[in-house]
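I am still getting used to backbone structure tokens and would like to learn alongside you. Label the sequence line and the structure token line clearly, so we can match residues to local backbone shapes. Would you write everything just below, so we can both look at the same thing?
***
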Amino acid sequence: MPPRQRGIGRWLIPLIGVGALFAAPVAWWIQTWTPADRPARLAAIDVADTFKRSPQLEQVRDRGVLRVATLIEPTLYIPDSYRPQGLEYDLTGRFAERLGVDVEYVVVPTIEAAYEAVADNRVDLAAAGLAVDPARMQRFRFGPPYLTVSRKLIHATDRPAPKGLADIDGATITLPTGSASRFWLERVIAQDDTVRLDVVEAQDKLAILEGIRHGDIDYALALSHIALLAHKLSDEVAIGPIVGPPVALAWVFSRQADESLHRVARRFFAEARSDQQLKMLVDRHYAQFERLDESLSRRFLQDLETHARPYLATFRRAGERYEIDWRLLASVGYQESKWQPGAVSHQGAYGVMQIVLPTARDLGLTDPTDPTTNIMSGAKYIAQLRELVPEKAIEPDRTYLALAAYNVGIGHLSDALELTRRQGGDPTQWADVRERLPQLSDPEIYRDMRYGYAHGNETVNYVENIRAFHDLMIWVATRKDLLAERP
């Protein structure tokens, strides 16, 4: 098959987004990752000794800090000076709160490094989207699974689309270093004569995705949530079929430690399932990307580089004044107008934040076409709406409900909250209200509501798009200063 040629213009801009998804500055983990320099056998003896003297749970509480090894990865952990993001961040934060301690995140460069940090007792557990791995069970304990995903073949779009592993007979398949999929795949190859593959490893998921984009890698295995994000952000990565059984993600603990911390973690996850907190957190970090249109996400990354820069400083000032993350405000501006200050809707909404004239008058906005005052007024309006949603709503749900009101109106949001109450949902949770908003276009429902008909489904898409754009901006910002002046 002839080699593929790709021009720089085809992949340079999407590289910003894909790179931001899977890596942070190298200096970040160089400072936090120090390889062990003692012989493994001596280190093991020392580690085991520490737990003979004191149970692990007692050590954590005496220290006042839960040490967590993690990887920078979308939806799992993204460091950020304003507020870190990710499912692992939320879960470990709640777990530490239960223990009455703080959290210290140790960012490591590879899956293998996460395991070694646990083995060397430099961390108490690893929370890094790690798959339960039978090959490692002699050295490590796995906590209760918190998310089940699948393995998917991914490949360059100009490669033949396989139906399974047998369709790529004789090909090279790439995995991240230390991936649990290696043990599974090698077992498949040993047991199935129709599957003949050369298995190689790349340092991380970013290296694999860029290898696919540049034509250096033909096929790779990726967990389904990573495959989905890669496809959403690059038209050069295709998602192939599911291969093998489901994969469970779990925290990792050392077998050299006693079970005290592991036991508390089991209870923590059991309670998180029973009160729906785990379901809510998974939804918070995954639902918006399942809904996000691929072409819209790719256009967002391009426009962030080419159109947003003149307004980002204003978004930051507005965020500081009204205590709203400026990147969320910028995401609202993109959803409303694609950052076009001259935009005018058919409903008479103006400017970057698409403010209608009656609202502009209430906000004291005299010139809705001026981007600076328009952005400041939009932020002010969101802050006002945030005060009108149920008092018991906490962040980020409080802001998500305010964004829904920004789009559909506070009256229709009130109807959706009331409908949520009637149907046994929680009106303080965006996930519950999101299920009811589309019902406001059902005649059997809206005729019984105070404010009547509303395009509730459009409002759901509106808020979910903003949530996804917000996460994309945070991820991009882990690699570059969005507020820096362009050379």
